[in-house]
Design a protein that fits this description.
Layout lengths: L8 H34 L4 H29 L1 H21 L3 H29 L2 H31 L4 H5 L1 H15 L14 H20 L6 H23 L13 H31 L4 H7 L1 H21 L2 H17 L9 H29 L6 H26 L10 H29 L30
Helix pairs in contact: 1-2, 1-4, 1-5, 1-7, 1-10, 1-11, 2-3, 2-4, 2-8, 2-15, 3-4, 3-7, 4-5, 5-11, 5-12, 8-9, 8-15, 10-14, 10-15, 10-16, 12-14, 13-14, 13-16, 14-15
Length: 485
């Protein structure tokens, strides 16, 4: 039985460890977009390489995050967490030293593997270590500090890019790991799930990641023009995706049990998740470029410009969750995407020499309001739609779905908007493509809103409620661990 008290010295060390670990992954998910224009210029990379700089990380993270949580349950949560931190920092060092775009992309894929080991482990350590009476407060502090990290990320990334250089966006993870690992080894108790048994679904994880990689490659390369190679890759990606579904249906211990989708509510809310996080992924990828390439902002100015969105999430996400408990999830899950769609249409005003107060800020405030409205109720509905014993799995599936949707959007949106390989090097060309991309994102959000209104219902009384009340990450919904961890 976990017995560490939050007020004890050990409790504070555990909280510090988990905050440091999760902050590494959280910072990485928010700072890299700001650095993309400078990375492209320094490494002489085209738009496809910039897309892969984001997506190589997301492919391995989305494909392996469920497996990462299972490894911690089986072999020890502290052990896998520390391995994830060391792996993530080592890959970050390789990113920071990358001599060309190819090495950077490969290192980003390795970084995603570390993130898949580290991300589920930070919350699982809190669940497994703290006394039940202190667990809720510990999770609240962890999610609050993590949200602050997400909010500071774009500002910090911009400052690093304009100052010591974009490589420090990645190198910053190394000193964080050097602080985190010794504290974890010395102060965090080891724990595991005695009920964990059976074989790991390595084949399922590999097939899922490979399907995402092949489809992403086909979408990105199609931006250069359709060719037999693009067609073959797309067909292969679909075939691997079918194989993934087949394997998961027939394995005794699948990574993604198909029967979890027997819940219509769970299926519905994941469809909404795919829509909203596809739009968010495309929006934040292109907006960081639009502000620098077209509006003429420095990296620091672009990073700072995005602060209101995450600040609003930090301030009001807990209240939004409480309000959704009273009204039911259908209303916020319908209204939230519509607010975000309106924000994306407002971004059409952001062009050359855009004024921040009159052109940029209104769109980002409306975007923040939409995120506040949709994220907390979405997480609560995911947890409430399955048995309590499967809440951790449901949260992991929802988180992976959001990340997969984001990476597909980053791959597909430039193609749909007609962005050529060198578009980000021309302000006029990128601005025209951005103006075509934002209505597409808005349309996807409207689809998500319609799905929520038509399919989402009020959860049954007595269902599981989220422990993470505060959230600031714009790339994925918060993870929740099993209560029995």
């Amino acid at each position: 039985m976990p017995d560490v008290r939050l007020a004890s010295p050990q409790g504070k060390w555990i909280l510090l460890t988990t905050v440091l670990g999760s902050s590494m992954a959280m910072l990485d998910s928010t700072v890299v977009n700001v650095a993309l224009p400078r990375i492209g210029r320094d490494l002489d990379a085209n738009l496809a390489a910039l897309q892969w700089t984001v997506n190589a990380y997301m492919v391995t993270l989305a494909g392996l995050i469920l497996l990462g949580g299972s490894l911690g349950d089986r072999y020890g949560r502290r052990k896998i967490f520390v391995l994830g931190v060391v792996w993530f920092a080592s890959a970050s060092l390789l990113c920071g030293l990358a001599p060309n775009a190819g090495v950077l992309i490969a290192a980003r894929a390795l970084q995603g593997v570390g993130g898949a080991l580290l991300t589920p482990g930070s919350l699982a350590l809190i669940q497994a270590s703290f006394h039940r009476d202190d667990r809720s407060r510990a999770v609240g502090l962890w999610s609050g500090f993590g949200g602050i990290g997400a909010a500071v990320g774009p500002f910090l990334g911009g400052w690093l890019v304009d100052g010591p250089g974009w490589r420090w966006v990645f190198l910053l993870n190394v000193p964080l790991a050097l602080l985190c690992v010794p504290v974890a080894v010395r102060h965090v108790p080891e724990s595991a799930d005695e009920r964990a048994h059976g074989r790991f679904d390595v084949l399922g994880a590999a097939l899922g990641a490979l399907a995402l990689a092949l489809l992403t490659y086909a979408l990105i390369e199609a931006g250069h023009g359709f060719s037999p190679a693009v067609t073959v890759t797309a067909v292969a990606g679909l075939a691997v995706a079918v194989a993934f579904v087949y394997v998961e249906k027939h394995r005794p211990d699948p990574m993604l049990p198909p029967d979890i989708f027997a819940s219509r509510q769970f299926t519905a809310v994941n469809l909404v998740t795919l829509c909203v996080y596809a739009a968010f992924g495309g929006f934040f990828f292109l907006t960081a470029l639009q502000l620098q390439v077209v509006a003429g902002y420095s990296a620091l100015q672009a990073g700072t410009a995005l602060l209101p969105t995450t600040a609003l999430m930090l301030l009001f996400s807990a209240r939004s969750g409480a309000l959704a408990d009273r009204t039911g999830p259908r209303l916020p899950l319908t209204v939230g995407p519509l607010l975000c769609a309106a924000a994306m249409l407002l971004m059409l005003r952001v062009g050359p020499d855009a004024n921040y107060l009159t052109d940029v800020l209104p769109a980002l405030v409306v975007m923040g309001a939409g995120l506040v409205t949709v994220v907390a109720p979405l997480t609560a509905t995911v947890l409430a739609s399955v048995d309590t014993a499967r809440a951790g799995l449901a949260s992991g599936v929802n988180n992976a779905a959001a990340r997969a949707a984001g990476l597909v959007a980053v791959a597909a949106l430039p193609l749909l908007a007609g962005m050529g390989p060198e578009a980000y090097l021309s302000a006029s060309a990128f601005d025209a493509a951005f103006d075509r991309a934002m209505p597409i994102c808005a349309g996807v959000l409207v689809v998500g809103s319609v799905l929520a209104f038509g399919l989402v219902r009020r959860p049954a009384p007595g269902c599981r409620h989220p422990e993470c009340k505060t959230h600031g990450c714009v790339t994925s919904p918060p993870l929740e661990a099993d209560e029995s961890a």
